[in-house]
Amino acid sequence: MITANLPEEIITEILLGLPVKSLLKFRCVSKTWLFLISSYQFAKAHLEISTKNNVYIHDKLIFGSKILPMDLYTCSIYSLIEGSNVTDSIYPKTDEILLYDRVQFDCPLAELDDAIWLVGSCNGLVCVSISPNNIYLWNPTTKKSKMLPNSGTDLDFDYYSIAFGYDELHDDYKVVEFAEHETGVYETQLKVYSRTTNSWKILSNWPGGDTFGGSGIFLNGAIHWSVCDFDRPFEWVIVAHDLATDVFIELPLPNLEDDDDVIIEVKILEGRLALYCEHNLYMDAWVMKEYGVGKSWTKVFRIPFFLDFRDHQLARPCPLFSSADGKTLINYGTSLRVYDLSDPQPHQFSSSLEVEATTYIESLVSPNFEDEVIIGRTLPQDIITEIFLRLPVKSLLRFKSVSKGLLSLISSSDFVKAHLRTSTKNNVYIHDKLIFGSKTFDMELYTYPIHSMIESSVSYDPVHAVAGSVYSVTDENLKFNHVWLDCSDIEPDEMTFLVGSCNGLVCVSFSSNSLILWNPTTSKSKMLPDSGTVLDFEHYGISYAFGYDELHDDYKVVEFLGFVDETGIYEIQVKVYSMRTNSWKILSNWPGGDTFGGSGKFLNGAIHWSVCDFDRLANWAIVSHNLSTDTFVELPLPNLGDDVRVEVAIIRGSLAVYCEHNVYMDIWVMKEYGTRESWTKVVRIPFFLNFWDHEFFRPHPLFLSVDGKVLVNYGSSLKIYDSNNPQPHQLSTTWSVAATTYVESLVSPNMYEGNPV
Predict the structure, then answer these.
(1) SS3 at position 721
(2) Cα(347)–Cα(349) distance, rounded to whole angstroms?
């Protein structure tokens, strides 16, 4: 499956680029995809991508006969403009073969003799009027519709028109109703419907003038009307109605050549405000290239009529769309045709209006406000937060770009900590991930869920990759996720060591003793300052540990150095790095003993080291270093016998030790922290030979499942060893693979520099 191979953000990017009809099908793939595609945020992001390019290739036409209200069709405007012969009718087709997509508009209250009016569209929603008291918002692509409540307007009017648009400030879709009455005194009544409140309100600040039934056109957050007075019927102005503030302003018109016999209709052309100016014998199209600037009006083309069609009582031709190369889609009243300015043909005038049409784009936007209850709109803030606390980190990173509110929420330190607590409530390995890669291939690192690795018994063997194949896996259809660690200051030939992880941060060291704290999920990293340790000793061993000081809310790295000084005395030096202060300090109270290069493991606010003396190599102890107080205590070990090597570990949230004997390894778990009697041997791994005699690399267990499967680093490969079905080990004489476990989180390695996420 695609989800098994690609990161979630890539999957989302792919889905955002798909057409709506494909997305509607993909909702049934999984619950995750259903939630994603149905979410309000995804619908907005998809709409934004779809409308980035204003070229008509993305637009569609919806059209049909007014006398058959439910008989509607859609097709791509690109196909119409590019594929139509100017001599043929687009609709109705003379050959009775209609190749367009039929759409069904569900309107149970419509009467058989009702006529349909396609008012206009916005963001994929089409406003449809069957009668003044039957207004709908409809998405032709998703087939969802909503009937608006009755506006209460008196049906005894002289002129009536509707407009439809979007109030971005309040994230609300609005319908404007314009009714004009003449009862001795000419009266204008303006009402606005809000989808959010599902109600109408009356506006009383209309500046004056009449639209004569012309529709308003939406652009830049405002409805634009072409308006003039009865007393001065050819003195036209454009009135812009801001949907967010309900304020009206007048926009300048171009110089229309002092023609007193002109009818103006506002339109949108190539994303700009436009005018179709109808004169007796021709129609001019003007575009306002800079919104609001009168001097930017530019005449883009002229359509000749070849006769004064008004004298013949013909219906006004209604241009619907104009392409950049001069082709215009025109509704002639009884037919839709493309008129090509470069190849003028006689017009097909009509004496009746029987065809209805408008343009729209395909989108996932719902006409029903209640469909968008998902995230960030009508749910209480605490419920929204609870939902987000349960989302994976990669989904949260995407949602940060949805709104400033979500960005603020997800980026807050309180949310980061709460999300981490929620993610780590269950210590079962299903939530953990493994990060691994070849120590000799710098930055070539991979991640994979431990649950999938254990259950599928996936192996990692870079040796075969070197031989020319990809990294081998038992199931060749299973791929690991490649992750990049950005560390430009590290030399190309350096070795990579994955020290350990804490709360989603991974500590990475290099052979030069450079250190980086890195969040593989968010890709954020931080290079630590030099500890000042000088490694000019003939004999030394250095190791690191990483953990969290909850008392001071501080992440800390511990450096442990054992060396033989100039006098031949073996010395121990311990330093602690604080991420909060971004500095190192030296500790002088180490209780004694050497770690022999073993890493410390973090648990319960302390770093735990397996320690013994040079003089008594079988006399092991666990030293616990409290990161809050920098005090050391010794924890008891189980009875292990002689000739053993001990390495401390963490298994499913409990302190553990791997006890390596000559021909086997025992794994012990301390079920009750600090209580010696609670040590329990959980599994024994036989080696079938004394691998010390063969100079093999020590097998290094990384994880133990509840059913006895052990994830083992054999030095040159990672493999699953099943204690219930023992198989020969893949022992190695080299140590070329680095690996550690971690959880995904939002914790930032730069949190004390003003970057919580």
Answers:
(1) strand
(2) 6
Taking Cα atoms as reference points, which of 385, 365, 364 lies closest to residue 375?
Answer: 385
Q: Which distant-in-sequence residues (6+ apart) come within 8 Å of 629 by Cβ?
A: none
**Could you tell me the strand order of the sheet in which 297-304 lies?**
263-269, 272-278, 282-288, 297-304
pLDDT given for residue 6 in this prediction: 60
Q: Which helix (H) or strand (E) holds 136?
A: strand 134-139
Specify the amino acid at residue 417.
K
Q: 688 pLDDT exceeds 70?
A: no
Question: Mean pLDDT over residues 67-90, rounded?
Answer: 70
Calpha distance 347→586 (Å, rounded): 91
Question: What does each C-alpha distance from 245 to 59, 198, 223, 249 come to in angstroms?
Answer: 29, 18, 12, 11
Q: What is the DSSP letter of 471?
A: P
Q: Reply yes or no on whether the pLDDT at 465 is more than 50.
A: no
Q: Which is higher by pLDDT, 457 or 753?
A: 753
pLDDT tens per residue, range 474-511: 334 445 777 878 776 777 677 888 999 999 999 999 87
* 81 three-state secondary structure: helix
pLDDT reading at 343 higher than 60: yes
Contacts of 583 (CB under 8 A, 6+ apart): 529, 577
With a CB cutoff of 8 Å and minimum separation 6, the contacts of 558 are: 544, 545, 546, 547, 574, 575, 576, 577, 600, 607, 625, 627
